[in-house]
Amino acid sequence: MKKYIIALFLGLSAMVQAQNTLSGTVTDEAQQPIIGVSVYISELHKGTITDANGNYSFKNLPNGNFRIAFSYMGYKTLNQWVDKLNKQTRLNIQLQSAVLEIDEVIVSTPFNKMQSQNVMKVEHESINSLKQKGTATLIEGLATIPGVSQISTGTSIGKPVIRGLSANRVLVYSQGVRLENQQFGGEHGLGLNDAGVESVEVIKGPASLLYGSDAMGGVLFFNPEKFADAHTFKANVNQRYFSNTLGSNASVGLKTSTDNWKFLARGTYNTHSDYKMPNGDRVTNTRYNETDFITGVAYNNTTFSTVLRYNFNKLDLGIPEEGIAEQTISKRPDFPSQGVDNHLLSLNNVIYFGNSKLDFDLGFISNNRKEFEDSNVASLDMLLNTYNYNLKYHLPKKGNFETILGVQGMHQTNKNRGEEYLIPDATTNDFGVFGTVNYEWSTNVLQAGLRFDNRNLNSLAHEAEEHEEEEVGEKHEHHGGDFEALSRSFNSFNASLGYKTNLSEPLVLRVNVASGFRVPNLAELTSNGVHHGTNRFEEGNSELKNEQNIQTDLNLEYQNQHFEFFINGFYNHIDNYIYAAPNGEVIDDTNVFAYVQDNARLYGGEIGLHIHPHPLDWLHYETSFETVTAKKQNGDYLPLIPANKWNNTLRTEFKIKNWLEEGFASFNVNTTFDQNNVSGFETATNGYTLINLGLGGKVKLGNKAFDVNLNANNLFDKKYIAHLSRLKTDGIPNIGRNIVLGLNFNL
Predict the structure, then answer these.
(1) Does residue 100 lie in a domain region?
(2) Over the stretch 541-589, which tens digit does the pLDDT of each residue have?
(3) What is the pLDDT of residues 356-373, one digit of tens each?
């Protein structure tokens, strides 16, 4: 089968004549060739490894400018810029040995610079490093990044929080396109599985210049799994087991490539029972099942590169309403439950014009969210279809100036097909235009940009039918939601200015000032009924204005061979911050919460260090502290703000003879402090400390090898309630001890 697949791709690629080539040799500081160095051109999705003589080569490259990454364990990753390829370009590389490797090409920022050259400080984490922490879901892994938290409902539902901002204030990008999945709601998760994801980049602060509305709090940018190196066929099996939920996460993938064509596919199934608290009881109906499928095909020649990807994610989960009730290890969700089907289709293109290029991305997202109260007939059935486009033209470089001009847009329809309405049927159209300039000299970089956006939002009127049903001698009154027709147009101008400089060779300073905005969502504009997910009657406000913010960021970092230190500070002022507050009324025995606006300010930051003492090359100590304070104009605190956290990790690296390579062991102490800075309808939360252990590496048995991770999270079965847990109001603790075993086989 392998031979037939490779033969098919070889036949298709033979239609294209080879033109530009790039080759060279990779050596170490002693001029000795290095075998197995990964050489990757991210823009073309092309990769290879050096042979026994340290040689590498690429064929059929476009007439453009490219950044090429050379990486190998124990050496500093080198990102080399290549200008104006010719028929036979030769590039020899010398890698330097290094202990700390933090330099990455950042895709989520305008000019795709290396982190060391980037004006903005962006957090970059590989999914493998998050898996080594033993987290059960993608959002749990993200919450281990300084400045990132989650609003959770058990283990199945998690919403990202960046420096105190969440929901529609945090934008998610996957496969290069904007992910739209009714993200204003807290009753469903991120809608992404970590299978098929290579890494994540976190922008902490306004990114509206590049992404438009909803990026005022930050961006989570997920880089998809890389294609196989040319002329290779790879298969992968990944299996994880979770003791607490009796859970299993199984993933199988395959991929192959020629010089021009590339293909991959991956299927994943994730299933969990109700999670167990430290006292041994399980929280009823927190079970869930997830099916995920990803496929992609790519092609490039001397004039363009194109990648077509498709992702299907199906999530069936229980909605915990009874707390501690029926004790079962069943993995089939009980009523009430929710089913979310998400289809994501993306087409990413780059067209080369010699000294300039055009990035052209198209996306289609279909999100179907259903809620089942007491039968298999959905009471709530919402279909959200989104078409988006993103064009960026990179002008020819003029001296030290680089310029990008862009156009972005979105067409979105929301349709209700169930008896209950959470938001009305509506149509949304976005249009944005922007320009940004990067000027670099010596170790200094100056970047500035301007953007204009318009959103037109039109919704239909809906008059809910009210009826009574007799059930076990009680009367139940159902409300489908009353909505008046709405037609609004929102405009916003935004700007950004950033500066980066090296105060000395190892000391980097970054200063950024940027504005952002968010258009009020349909729930905030139109709500008029009981929201069962929050157990309150919500009243929207059709006159709400844009949220508009301006944030100042300061980043200072120091790095040498054995020591790394960083400090990030921010101040974020938001005009017209939207939130729901009780107005004193009661309807249908439920408190009424109305959406209102007030000015707000958030401030805080993160500080951390990483020590790798010499000559103890096997030892690492990492520590970080994060804090955010959020207040309204009158001095009252904003709701849903994470508590301060202090994270400490002691990590060792080792090798045992010839059967264990890349071995590691970690001891983690994660302290969350008391959260007493709460809004008027919240309650304070006590702090807690969790102990986590990790152990793993690459086991070699003859010619076979596999990766293994063993983690013990919440080792001492600590009873605690996180401040951002939506089960907190019922006094339900978070998950107890969880032993996680992960196995990965590359076939």
Answers:
(1) no
(2) 899 999 999 999 999 999 888 889 999 999 999 999 998 888 778 877 7
(3) 899 999 999 999 999 998
**Domain interval for residue 613:** 122-746
How would you classify the pairing of strands 88-90 and 20-27? parallel
Same domain for 224 and 85: no
DSSP letter for each residue of 215-271: -SSEEEEEEEPPPPPTTEEEEEEEEEEETTTTEEEEEEEEEEE-SSEEEEEEEEEEE
Asked, as a colleague might, if the bond just before 615 is cis with ω within 30 of 0, I would say yes
What is the spatial distance between Cα 187 and Cα 319, in angstroms, rounded to a whole number? 8
Q: Using alpha carbons, select from 642, 611, 651, 627 the residue that is nearest to residue 571.
A: 627
Number of independent structural domains in the chain = 2
Question: To which H or E segment does residue 289 belong?
Answer: strand 288-300
Whether residue 50 sits in one domain with residue 190: no
With beta carbons less than 8 A apart as the criterion, state whether 294 and 282 touch.
no
Question: In angstroms, what CA-CA distances link 554 with 110, 575, 607, 628?
Answer: 19, 21, 12, 15
Span 123-174, pLDDT tens digits: 888 888 888 888 888 888 889 999 999 988 888 888 899 999 988 899 999 9
Ordered strands of the 218-224 beta sheet: 122-126, 197-204, 218-224, 170-174, 177-178
d(CA 214, CA 361): 19
